[in-house]
Specification:
The protein is an all-alpha fold. The protein is built from 13 helices and two strands, in the order H-H-H-H-E-E-H-H-H-H-H-H-H-H-H.
């Protein structure tokens, strides 16, 4: 197996584990990672401090690690993060700060924090908007921060054709390709929202292809060295693989729904997450 294939398997297994532990939909997390970094855990933005699989900027990363790190074995990091009276997150020791920020490039830590971040944002956005949050809404919260997303979505409800760069000049300067057309014209709020929706939809469409590839790899892994993989329902490896292969035909019919129907996966999705972990050759008890 090539280095790239091993890396992809590790990333997808980390996302599956984060989904199963937090209840955040696997399709959404995988689609977001595809859009943000192309599943490259070492991706680095050229115009901001964003880094890693989910392209967290420094302040957003410190905030989510402070809130949820201890729940997932990162208590040392959470305890090292403080907050100023103005709300800015800080780390007193420069070496520790660098180590915490470097976790953005660890697929396991990045996936877990992205899942917790999505869950927090869902609750907050639904309270503000008075409706169910879509995958695109959550992506806006990741892109602009929760406060920015609330401002963006509320403004779009009132005036969808308003110029987005005028409302978010800082974000526009760092992301000109999103906020402006090739001719330099300012995009509207609705244009940007639709653009993100399309990107998430395209990523979601490729999720079924990713699953098919992983199931093929899982079939080989499950038969190696006589090892037995036990899924969450205590099926044998053969039974689990047969179920997952059959399930693929059903999930493939979802289309772009995966971009908008996101949290609290069905038992079927949870079982697919187990199959993703099985593709690494692990014994799951």
């Amino acid at each position: 197996m090539t280095v790239n294939a091993i890396s992809a398997s590790r990333v997808q297994s980390a996302i599956a584990l984060a989904s199963s532990k937090t209840g955040v939909d696997f399709d959404y997390l995988l689609g977001q990672a595809k859009v943000e970094s192309g599943l490259n855990a070492n991706a680095k933005a050229g115009t901001s401090s964003a880094s890693g699989l989910y392209q967290f900027v420094e302040q957003s990363w410190l905030a989510v690690v402070k809130k949820h790190g201890a729940e997932h074995g990162l208590g040392w990091a959470a305890d090292s993060i403080g907050q100023t009276s103005g709300g800015r997150y800080t780390v007193g020791d420069s070496g520790t700060r660098s180590a915490i920020l470097a976790l953005r490039n660890d697929p396991g830590a990045a996936s877990m924090m992205a899942a917790e971040h999505a869950s927090d944002n869902k609750d907050a956005l639904e309270g503000t908007l008075g409706r169910a949050a879509t995958g695109t809404d959550l992506y806006m919260a990741h892109f602009l921060g929760l406060g920015g997303a609330k401002k963006f979505l509320s403004a779009m409800q009132s005036n969808p054709q308003a110029g987005a760069a005028s409302l978010f000049p800082g974000a526009a300067n760092a992301n000109r390709g999103i906020f402006y057309t090739a001719g330099g014209q300012q995009r509207s709020l609705a244009d940007i929202y639709d653009k993100f929706s399309d990107k998430l939809g395209a990523a979601a469409s490729s999720v079924s292809e990713t699953r098919a590839a992983n199931l093929s790899f899982a079939a080989q892994s499950l038969n190696m060295d006589g090892s037995t993989v036990v899924t969450g329902g205590n099926e044998s490896a053969a039974d689990a693989l047969a179920w997952a292969t059959t399930a693929m035909s059903r999930f493939g019919a979802k289309g772009n729904q995966a971009a908008t129907n996101l949290l609290r996966p069905t038992p079927n999705n949870a079982r697919l997450a187990y199959m993703m972990l099985a593709s690494m050759g692990a014994n799951i008890k």
